[in-house]
Every structure is written in structure tokens, then in C-alpha cells.
Amino acid sequence: MPDPDLTTPLSVLAQSEPIAPLVGIVMGSDSDWPTMEAATVALDEFGIAWEADVVSAHRMPEDMVTYGRQAHARGLRCIIAGAGGAAHLPGMLAALTPLPVIGVPVPLKYLDGMDSLLSIVQMPAGVPVATVSIGNARNAGLLAARMIAAGDAGLTQKMLDFQASLRDLAMAKGEKVRL
Ligand code: RP5
């Protein structure tokens, strides 16, 4: 049961329906939101409650520490963290929380997101971040859904149905090129 003193996040940029969020989505800047929003779409498809906010590792380090320290006690089950450039947010949160952290490398104007990718993926042993491909916040949302679905028969069935729909889609694409 989450501590009632810790049930309110620092602030909220956006959130799903007002029930206790299971997934916390944070990003270094509101300029990351157009990329990160795809995670919320994926979570909505599975009916998983989320919250989203800007928690910058470099511009608001103390708030980042508070977010990371409180996330578990607030009832979150997973954190999705996106950042661009020198993208330290996912790794720092992984150091602060026992929750699984999924990192989203946000592509910026220069270097095509390779800087973000390498900043997030090269974590030292002992502090894991599950890094998705550059800009792929949808996969971050789907991976979070799989984590939440583990041990939940209803959500697992939804994931199986979703995977079957991917096969149907791929088969339909094949029809277009098959003789
Ligand atoms: C990073 O710096 C943020 O995650 C963002 O991707 C990037 C640029 O931020 P803004 O200058 O647009 O606020 O920390």
C-alpha cells in the first residue's frame, strides 16, 4: 500500500485517468514530449495508468533525486525516462530506485540521437537501464506493459492478442507482394 504522503508526484505534465499511476514517464525537457507521448498511447491501449512530467537531471537534480527516491513508495511499478544529448536521466533514476527503468534516447538536432543512445545504453554492471531504440517511446510503453502484465492473466492475454494482430498486419503486407 503506497504511503499516502507520497501519493502526489512533484507536479504533472500529463496523466491518464485519475487513478493511481503504475508507470511514471519522465523526460529532461518539454521538448522531449512529442517523442515521449507515444509511450502514453501504448499504455492507454492496455488500460495502464501513467503519469508524465519533466524531471531534468541537469537543471533540477534535487527534484530528480526526490522523484527517484519516492517512485517505488508512491506505487509506481516502472519508470520510462527519456532524454536527449548528454542523457543522464535514465541512468541516474536507475541508481536511485529499485524499479525497472526503461530509457528512451531522444534524437536532437545534431548527431541523430547517437549521443543520447550511447549516454543511456552504456550503463555500468549493477545499474541496469533497458534501452529502446532511438526515439522509440512506443516500444518503451509496450515494454512497460509487458512488465506490468507479468503475473496478470488478463493483461497477458491482451498482450498475446496484440502480438497476434502484428502477425495479421505482417501477413497483410505480404499479400501485397505475393504473386
Ligand atoms: C536534454 O536536453 C533534454 O532531455 C532535451 O532532450 C535536451 C534539450 O532540452 P531543451 O533545450 O529543449 O529544453 O536534457
From TrEMBL:
This is N5-carboxyaminoimidazole ribonucleotide mutase. Its EC number is 5.4.99.18. It comes from Luteococcus japonicus LSP_Lj1. The keyword Lyase applies. Belongs to the AIR carboxylase family. Class I subfamily. Keywords: Isomerase, Lyase, Purine biosynthesis. Substrate binds at S29, D32, R59. SMART domains: AIRC (SM01001). Gene3D superfamilies: 3.40.50.1970. It catalyses: 5-carboxyamino-1-(5-phospho-D-ribosyl)imidazole + H(+) = 5-amino-1-(5-phospho-D-ribosyl)imidazole-4-carboxylate. One of its GO terms (biological process) is 'de novo' IMP biosynthetic process. Pathway: Purine metabolism; IMP biosynthesis via de novo pathway; 5-amino-1-(5-phospho-D-ribosyl)imidazole-4-carboxylate from 5-amino-1-(5-phospho-D-ribosyl)imidazole (N5-CAIR route): step 2/2. InterPro entries: PurE_ClassI (IPR033747), PurE_dom (IPR000031), PurE_prokaryotes (IPR024694). Signal peptide: none annotated. It holds the Pfam family AIRC. Residues 21-170 form the PurE domain.
